[in-house]
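TASK: fixed-backbone design
INPUT:
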């Protein structure tokens, strides 16, 4: 949910040319064109070990009560072998396969065949058909923004079942969690492989494809910029937002239901996880149209990184706090619960208001008020690949004058709040804040490398005025 650091003027958005940096070419748009040995080594490492990392985390909860060290100690001391751990792991089942097939199919139906109606009666919500950003080929794709609607319909049916129909137990997700992991992997690898084959034989737009000399790099980072089937099924928007993020809150509800079943109560820590992460998920769908302007949609190609990552990595590792609390229920003191809630809410406020300030600045071309006064900015220029000169404005007021990526700072505060609900008994639930810190720091560097290439000396002027990336006075 990270956004770009720069704001574009309304005049700039009128031009239908490729907004590359001065002296740059289309080859520098999006992911890398040439692959060095370090990038290739990183890709091979992630392709080999990411699935094992997910399995290890989930297995450790299932067999070792969420301890990340006990499986290794058991194997080193000879008390257990890899074959023993694997043999105790639940295998793929027809029940899990049917659940998963129904889930994905249902989300596809909601995505393609149910046009958004929320924007017609919900004040302030932007839904329905919206335009994305300019692609490398110079086209502007249209999207059916209906994620909030899909989330509402899905959750209405879930609660109707839980309290009235009783078709299935609310613990169904937790009870089939590992068999569902195999289903998620099958989908993740299938869609990533299909996207690669599609880019070779029937790309949606051949000019938006990037090929390198490395098959592994292309498979992971993607070749096609916006692979689509038909007019509306966009791979990036669907897999980024659905089915993983719609499922996020349902997964947490299933964990809470399991806690109730096992212990006769739901702890305040589990309630906090559900509330804070629920706010995050609802924010994503409320601002789905804004998401079309983020790095995932505007600069990433669609490959294994997004395809498998959204099917497996996101739903399984972003929900570790709730999973941990099933095995280790934590009842926080009132003071600790209030403190964690405030940390999460303040983090969310910073995250949302920072993005709101940038969006307002963009939409009004700086003719607005930020913190009660007209915003200050640095006027920048860059030249497109066709030699046309454009102008842009980098805001240095409000939260954007505090740090260059202060929205990420708010995101990290919220991430820390999720983890703190679990206490300090194990490291496993803190994986999320560790991962998000690495991810968002990398995005800072990645964003700024692109902006430096684009704006040149103007970017140096900007970083002189706003010297810190995330934490004022520190970084």
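OUTPUT:
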């Amino acid at each position: 949910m990270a956004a770009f650091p720069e704001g574009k003027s309304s005049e700039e958005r009128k031009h239908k040319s490729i907004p590359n940096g001065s002296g740059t070419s289309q080859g520098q748009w999006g992911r890398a064109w040439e692959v060095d040995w370090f990038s290739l080594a990183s890709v091979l490492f992630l392709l080999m070990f990411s699935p094992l990392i997910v399995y290890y985390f989930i297995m450790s909860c299932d067999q070792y009560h969420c301890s990340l060290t006990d499986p290794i100690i058991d194997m080193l001391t000879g008390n257990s072998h890899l074959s023993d751990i694997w043999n105790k792991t639940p295998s793929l089942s027809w029940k899990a396969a049917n659940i998963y097939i129904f889930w994905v199919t249902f989300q596809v139906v909601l995505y393609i065949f149910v046009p958004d109606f929320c924007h017609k009666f919900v004040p302030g919500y932007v839904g329905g058909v919206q335009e994305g950003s300019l692609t490398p080929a110079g086209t502007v794709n249209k999207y059916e923004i209906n994620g909030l609607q899909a989330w509402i319909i899905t959750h209405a049916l879930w609660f109707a079942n839980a309290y009235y129909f009783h078709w299935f137990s609310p613990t169904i997700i937790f009870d089939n969690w590992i068999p569902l992991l195999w289903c998620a992997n099958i989908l993740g690898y299938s869609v990533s492989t299909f996207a690669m084959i599609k880019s070779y034989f029937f790309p949606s737009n051949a000019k938006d494809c990037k090929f390198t000399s490395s098959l592994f790099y292309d498979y992971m980072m993607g070749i096609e910029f916006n692979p689509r089937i038909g007019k509306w099924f966009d791979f990036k928007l669907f897999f980024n937002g659905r089915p993983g993020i719609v499922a996020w809150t349902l997964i947490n509800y299933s964990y809470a239901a399991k806690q109730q079943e096992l212990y006769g109560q739901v702890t305040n820590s589990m309630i906090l996880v559900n509330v804070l992460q629920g706010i995050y998920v609802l924010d994503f769908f409320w601002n789905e149209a804004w998401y079309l302007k983020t790095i995932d949609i505007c600069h990433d190609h669609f490959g294994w990184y997004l395809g498998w990552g959204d099917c497996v990595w996101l739903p399984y590792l972003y929900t570790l706090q709730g999973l941990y609390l099933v095995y280790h229920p934590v009842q926080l003191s009132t003071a600790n619960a209030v403190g964690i809630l405030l940390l999460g809410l303040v983090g969310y406020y910073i995250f949302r208001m920072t993005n709101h300030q940038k969006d307002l600045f963009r939409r009004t071309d700086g003719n607005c008020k930020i913190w009660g006064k007209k915003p200050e900015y640095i006027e920048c220029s860059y030249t497109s690949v066709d030699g046309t000169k454009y102008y842009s404005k980098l805001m240095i007021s409000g939260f954007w004058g505090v740090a260059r990526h202060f929205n990420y700072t708010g995101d990290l505060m919220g991430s820390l709040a999720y983890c703190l609900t679990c206490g300090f008994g194990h490291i496993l639930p803190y994986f999320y804040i560790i991962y998000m810190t690495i991810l968002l720091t990398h995005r800072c560097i990645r964003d700024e490398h692109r902006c430096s290439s684009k704006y040149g000396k103007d970017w140096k002027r900007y970083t002189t005025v706003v010297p810190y990336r995330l934490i004022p006075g520190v970084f």
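COMMENT: The two ends are 21 Å apart (CA to CA).
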